[in-house]
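Hi all, posting the design record for the shared folder.

TITLE: backbone redesign
STEP: 1 of 1
STRUCTURE INPUT:
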């Protein structure tokens, strides 16, 4: 099956595309990290042969499904380059990198949120009516970022949760909705607890974790000044290969995220990359333009 990178990619298409990779490249390992609230599997793929590993995660947010395609294209390009020995993205020797490193990829952490954003509340089965009420009675879900319970997954991690809650209240957020509600307690959502469990499992050999979001062409690397010593240097490497800007989060975006939890609980460099520039959801026709800058970031993370 030919992968169309310039078309909207929902959950089903993502899993179809992903399943073609181990067929073409049997050296890859594939599996599941867990399930979403609505019972959708959350798959991962592993490439490379080294003990030391990096972890790349896409689509925490419903409107950001293009990031799943960046990761699938990264897998395809890396495996092809490993096979051919050809250097890519301005000189990365992927055959060498993957001989010494492994890369774990979770392309779509929030499959329910992606489906709701693309196709509306009908995709949410028994949660349909509750979702519509969380969306203020509106049947248009094109700005939906959360999971099917209205929890913003990137506010549900155990990092400054109380401060996150205080800021939610300051923004008038007290319950589930399209964005920013952090849930009842840290890791309350199955998608988040699955990723935390998977990250803890990889932790002894994990050298960095990267979560792809859209948009802004920015690289976030710190959490309240507690980032490990290599974080800033690596963020600057990412900036050098992409032209993206190294940034510090402000306000409600400063707490409760995956990067924040990896840094503060595991002490491992972790990053939020805001891919592309424009208005979410970014148009599928921008895929190649954005991917060109994202690919060298992902290869740098793999090689570090
Ligand atoms: Zn996001």
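Okay, here is what came back for every position:
SEQUENCE:
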């Amino acid at each position: 099956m030919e992968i169309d990178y310039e078309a909207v990619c929902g959950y089903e298409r993502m899993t179809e595309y992903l399943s073609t990779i181990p067929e073409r490249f049997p050296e890859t390992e594939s599996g599941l990290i867990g399930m979403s609230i609505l019972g959708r599997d959350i798959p991962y793929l592993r490439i490379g042969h080294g003990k030391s590993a990096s972890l790349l995660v896409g689509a925490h947010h419903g409107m950001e499904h293009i990031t799943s395609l960046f990761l699938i294209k990264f897998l395809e390009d890396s495996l092809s380059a490993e096979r051919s020995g050809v250097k890519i993205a301005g000189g990365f020797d992927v055959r060498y990198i993957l001989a010494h490193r492994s890369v774990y990829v979770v392309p779509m952490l929030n499959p329910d949120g992606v489906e709701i954003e693309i196709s509306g509340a009908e995709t949410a089965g028994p949660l349909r009516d509750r979702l519509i009420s969380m969306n203020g009675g509106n049947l248009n879900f094109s700005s939906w970022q959360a999971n099917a319970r209205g929890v913003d997954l990137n506010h549900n991690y155990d990092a400054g949760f109380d401060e996150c809650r205080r800021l939610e209240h300051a923004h008038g957020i007290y319950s589930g909705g399209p964005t920013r509600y952090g849930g009842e307690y840290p890791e309350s959502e199955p998608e988040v607890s699955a990723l935390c469990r998977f990250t803890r499992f990889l932790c002894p050999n994990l050298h960095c974790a990267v979560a792809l979001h859209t948009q802004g062409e920015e690289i976030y690397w710190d959490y309240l000044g507690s980032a490990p010593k290599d974080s800033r240097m690596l963020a600057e490497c990412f900036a050098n290969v992409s032209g993206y800007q190294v940034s510090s989060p402000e306000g409600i975006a400063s707490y409760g995220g995956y990067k924040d939890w990896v840094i503060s609980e595991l002490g491992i460099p972790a990053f939020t990359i805001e891919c592309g520039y424009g208005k979410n959801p970014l148009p599928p026709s921008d895929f190649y333009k954005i991917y060109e800058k994202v690919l060298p970031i992902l290869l740098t993370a793999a090689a570090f």
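COMMENT: The chain has a mean pLDDT of 96.
Let me know if anyone wants the other runs.
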